[in-house]
Amino acid sequence: MADRNYSLFAQPIVSYPNLKRLMLSSNKLIKIPKEMFQRNKNLETLDLSDNLLKQIIFNLNNLSNLKILDLRNNRISVLDQNSMKILNSLLVTNNISQNICGILQMANNPFLCSECDTLASIKWLSTTTHLQGDITCKNPKGNFIPVDNNAASFVQEECDRPIRIRNTILLSVLLSISTITFTVLSLYKWQKYQQQKRYKKNMEEKIQQIQKNKLETKYLVFLSFSSFDYNFLNNNVYEPLKHHLQDKTGTDRDLICFGDKNFQLGKPINDKMVLCLQESAVVMLLLSHNFCQSEFCRMEFDMALHMKKPFILRMKEELDEKEMVPSLQQLFKRNTRLL
Q1: Which is nearest to 211 in space by CA: 181, 251, 248, 240?
Q2: Of 90, 142, 166, 309, which residue is most buried, by most CB within 10 angstroms?
Q3: CA gap 193, 137 in Å, rounded
């Protein structure tokens, strides 16, 4: 019946709610219908021994009076999560109602304790107090050992072995990387220190040249701005920057150059613009809407760009890049700017 009409096999005992003892041993049963015992609330003994069951897929949570569930001599090698869940539901139900111990009989099943996949099953079998009889499992060497805490610990160690190996390899790699990183950082810091030392020495030499008026350029900064922004520039850029540079270099000489101050009347403006740019180390642009609209400012910028002068961008206000000429847009995207 179980082989030829599985749905019919689930029905024979449905109409016997007072059934107390059911013997289904030695029937070569591969599986039991899920709801087969749901109406047999008074069942006390359920014998499924000497069959071919590999997992428990049938519900047992309604069997509150069950005293013996015999699953000996089946084909259960590993209890999956669903099987353990079903058995737990039975044990919880019976433990609350009758506090029954030894309700499960599962001896002589080919339990395995050789792989990590068997860990949960072995832990469950070694910790439940409702098992009756000695339970054994087959270890990696093919020997049968008792299912207890030692077996669970052995399987846990086998599970942890790849992790330990991985951690050992990882630790070795990390130590190697740490050593390399430490060496690289040490070299980097040493090079950084040497660079800072050279930079400091170079700055001291430059300051001495400025103080003796022997620098390659007459001015440190050329200010390029729109004449409409003169008042803003004078109060917020020129005066603070002049005093800052004088303080840093230890000289009273004005190290800033710009058109309205340094261009001479009567001289060709283009010639004076070129000369002032040549005599300045750095070009500072005061970018504004007025600057972007000024042909004169564009001319100054193009000349400085042609001379490959370093640029510092000072923003008077928020600007849309579309207002700028393409070459200024590239500089704007590449350079740091101060608002």
Answers
A1: 251
A2: 90
A3: 66
- At residue 278, what are phi and psi to the nearest 5 degrees? -65, -35
Of the candidates 238, 328, 256, which has an alpha carbon nearest to the alpha carbon of residue 292? 328
Burial class (CB in 10 A: 0-12, 13-18, 19+), 141: exposed
Name the pTM for this structure.
0.49
Beta carbons of 113 and 138 less than 8 angstroms apart: yes
Residue 266 tokens read as: 């009567």
Q: List, in order, residues 6 or more apart from 278 with CB less than 8 Å away.
A: 217, 307
Angle at 320 between CA 318 and CA 326, to 5 degrees: 130
According to the 3-state scheme, what is the secondary structure of 18-80? CCCEEECCCCCCCCCCCCCCCCCCCCCEEECCCCCCCCCCCCCCCCCCCCEEECCCCCCCCCC
Give the pair of three-digit tokens for residue 138: 């087959």
pLDDT tens for 119-176 read: 999 999 998 877 888 899 998 888 999 998 888 888 888 888 888 888 889 899 999 9
CA distance 132 to 113: 19
Distant-in-sequence, close-in-space partners of 199: CB < 8 Å, separation ≥ 6: none
